Amino acid sequence: MKLGLGTAALGRPQYINVRLENCDNSDLNAFRNKSFAVLEEAYNLGIRYFDTAPGYGLAEELLLDWLLTKDDKTIEVATKWGYTYTANFNPNATVHEIKEHSLSKLKEQWNFSKKLLPYLKVYQIHSATLETGVLENTAVLEYLSFLKKEHHLKIGLTTTGTNQVEVIKKALDVLVDGEQVFDLFQVTYNFLDQSLSEISSELNLQNKSIVIKEALANGRIFSNKKYPHYKEMYTSLEKIAAQHNVGVDAISLKYCEQTITNAKILSGASTTHQLKENLKLNDFLLSNNEIEILHSFKVSNENYWSERKKLEWN
Questions:
Q1: Omega cis (within 30) before 54
Q2: Nearest-angstrom CA–CA distance, 222 and 234
Q3: Does the pLDDT of residue 187 top 70, yes or no?
Q4: Helical H runs in the chain?
Q5: Cα separation of 191 and 217, whole Å?
Q6: Are 5 and 265 spatial neighbours (Cβ–Cβ below 8 Å)?
Q7: How far apart are CA 296 and CA 240, in angstroms?
């Protein structure tokens, strides 16, 4: 199955997203139980790839508890290092996470993440950027290379921001002992930000794994009066969705599947209902004409990420 499950919205009661309805996540125990149920439902529906991070609040711990109920070698877990969750489940927190790409932070977070072995197959730099210098940090790169060999991991990175392609190109040139460090790239991609398409063929040529995140553009694909400039997109999306008898979420996920070859696509579902709706991407194919229509809604990287920065934690 090409759909995997991202756990950002399962580990933190607040997430950067456009919410169409209010929900109460103040009861942490109830929130945890609901998130556990989503993991279980995902498994029952055939999902075997689960993406998590220490920056996602209780997500790694929750996933670890859930894995203790399983004995299935087909399960694959990806986690990350580099972000620390700081909100402490306080909905009014001003700072929810802090980025740090140091060797000490890598070792600290690996100390817990390694408990996900043997299900842990992918270890990623969380939001690698040129600004943090992590792709030039010899000590960090050598340690990642050591973990790769020691535990037979794929080493990856996630990208965000206007220069995703530039970061990926730089990462492809990173060598330790003459060998490429990075095997997998988790990239924001949807019909608003199509920048991944510039380099996806090269990644396939080099036999790299591609994981697509934020396929629903943090909820911006859903009709919303706050974004009148997307009115034409909303109309077209809803028309295409009606033709296939699915939601616009399934259309958006299917677009990613059909336009980026050999990619794993992450669902960010926080409820079992959302997950089932997302999985309807397996029930249909988009026509070439429909794909061209969706292609036409591309916006500039600057506009896309400027808009995303204004989204609130909710």
A1: no
A2: 7
A3: yes
A4: 8-11, 28-44, 59-67, 103-113, 138-151, 164-172, 200-205, 231-244, 248-259, 272-278, 288-295, 301-309
A5: 9
A6: no
A7: 14
pTM of the model: 0.94
pLDDT in tens, 62-120: 999 999 999 999 999 999 999 998 766 666 666 667 899 999 999 999 999 999 999 99
- pLDDT level of residue 19 (50, 70, 90 thresholds): very low
Residue 224 structure tokens:
């919303």
Using an 8 Å Cβ cutoff, are 60 and 52 in contact? Answer: yes
Residue 38 pLDDT greater than 70, yes or no: yes
| Predicted pLDDT of residue 30 | 87
More confident: 245 or 22: 245
Domains, in order of start, for the chain: 3-309 (3.20.20.100)
Structure tokens at 36: 């556990």
| Backbone phi and psi for residue 170, each to the nearest 5 degrees, phi listed first | -65, -40
CA distance 1 to 50: 12
Q: Cα(130)–Cα(153) distance, rounded to whole angstroms?
A: 24
- What's the pLDDT tens digit per position in 151-172? 999 999 999 999 999 999 999 9
Residue 285's alpha-carbon distances to 249, 257, 300, in angstroms, are 14, 10, 27
Q: How is residue 93 written in tokens?
A: 């927190």
For residue 185, which amino acid is it?
F
CA distance 18 to 221: 9
The encoded tokens of residue 50 equal 């689960």
SS3 1: coil
CA 165 to CA 161: how far, in whole Å?
10
For the chain, the average pLDDT equals 93
